[in-house]
UniProtKB/TrEMBL annotation:
Classification via InterPro entries: Chaperone_Ric-8_A/B, Gua_nucleotide_exch_fac_Ric8, HORMA_dom, HORMA_dom_sf
Lineage top rank: taxon: Eukaryota
Protein name: HORMA domain-containing protein
PANTHER family: SYNEMBRYN (PTHR12425:SF5)
The species this protein was found in: Caenorhabditis tropicalis
Localization per record: Cytoplasm, Cell cortex
Alphabetic keyword roster: Chaperone, Cytoplasm, Guanine-nucleotide releasing factor
Length: 304
């Protein structure tokens, strides 16, 4: 069997009963989202303010119920450090996904505690589970998952888009790179600009942005994902500049500069760059968008 990277490492704290509840709903949700059992074998339940899916398939219940009771017993005794859920191929036993839940038994709360640290971990597992290659074949908003529905709300011309954006940003652990990966820069740019966080898009990624949000097959296609759309480039994607000489490239670039300046003068577009405050700053000339570009006041273009 090939080595498979841990798909999800979630740290859990809370009472034994609360952590057991998380496993119950979390495992059921993974089985439902990955379509490992028919959708009709699940029923909808309301918990933590969320609509969750729980199996009513008797054989699966007969397997999970005693397992979860044993998990609760180990938790109460503070004997459980980690629980791992593995999805593997039936015939080859090859591991497809591996979910790891680390439990801090020294921090387990007393029964009846009013704190509920499980909700954040559950939201993370339900809304933005680790990416797989098939998911980035389509744009985020084209999916019927929770993430896809929230992204579609972000596209609405109403105040709810701000609530949806902030919710996803919180679920993404307020990581700009993680937000762009799950939503696409095109959908998240407005929210990041309003918060003054656009300057972080060029900062080095943290290891945590990848270790619990990417699967092995996603890593194989990651370089083919368009960060603006959050989906893979089309199969026939290629460079429009392929085969051009440097002189030809410069000529085409200046044609684009002139065209953009004409649209700016006509008030059709207002290009901007990222200011020191991490927000969008309007530019007076398109060359301001290019690093180390010549001063636009020092010379113009020969074209019309």
């Amino acid at each position: 069997m090939t080595d498979v990277k841990t798909q999800n490492a979630i740290s859990l704290k809370g009472s034994a009963q609360l952590v057991k509840e998380f496993f119950h709903f979390g495992i059921n949700s993974i089985l439902y989202q990955r379509a490992l059992y028919p959708a009709e074998s699940f029923k909808r339940e309301k918990k933590y303010g969320l609509a969750l899916f729980v199996t009513h398939e008797k054989k699966l219940q007969a397997f999970m119920d005693p397992l979860l009771h044993q998990v609760e017993y180990w938790l109460a005794k503070k004997q459980l450090k980690r629980l791992v859920m593995v999805i593997s191929e039936v015939k080859t036993k090859e591991v497809v996904e591996r979910w790891q839940f680390d439990i801090h038994t020294e921090d387990l709360a007393e029964e009846g505690s009013s704190d509920n640290p499980i909700i954040g971990a559950l939201n993370f597992a339900l809304v933005i589970p680790p990416l797989v290659a098939d998911e980035v074949k389509k744009r985020p908003e084209e999916h019927d998952s929770l993430r896809g529905r929230i992204v579609r709300i972000m596209m609405l011309p109403s105040a709810t888009k701000d609530v949806a954006s902030e919710f996803l940003f919180i679920i993404c652990k307020r990581s700009v790179n993680r937000m762009i990966k799950y939503v696409g820069f095109g959908h998240s740019a407005g929210h990041l600009a309003n918060m003054g966080l656009l300057g972080q898009i060029n900062q080095p990624k943290h290891a945590s942005d990848s270790e619990d949000s990417e699967t092995e097959d996603y890593n194989k296609v990651r370089d083919n994902v368009n960060p603006v759309t959050g989906a893979m480039y089309p199969p026939d994607h290629g460079s429009a500049l392929a085969g051009m000489t440097d002189a030809q490239k410069e000529f085409e670039a200046m044609k684009l500069v002139d065209a953009m300046n004409k649209m700016m003068d006509a008030g059709i577009v207002k290009p901007g760059t990222i200011g020191e405050d991490g927000k969008v700053r309007e530019v007076s000339h398109v060359l301001e968008l290019i690093k180390d570009a010549p001063d636009p006041e020092e010379g113009g273009s020969d074209s019309d």
